[in-house]
Amino acid sequence: IKALYLYDCLRANKSTSAWGLEARVPFLDKEFINVAMGMDPEWKM
């Protein structure tokens, strides 16, 4: 679990760079995670 972010970031980087884009990954920020997990599930995509 602790190294999962390494694979997610690598996959996101490869996927977006193939299209000439750069991904920003806010999901590594603990404050962002706390806010996202506290949201009503109906508000999420």
Automatic annotation (TrEMBL):
The keyword Nucleotide-binding applies. One of its GO terms (biological process) is asparagine biosynthetic process. Gene3D superfamilies: HUPs. It comes from the Eukaryota. InterPro entries: Asn_synthase, Asn_Synthetase, Rossmann-like_a/b/a_fold. PANTHER family: ASPARAGINE SYNTHETASE, ASPARAGINE SYNTHETASE [GLUTAMINE-HYDROLYZING]. This is Asparagine synthetase domain-containing protein. It comes from Nymphaea colorata (pocket water lily).
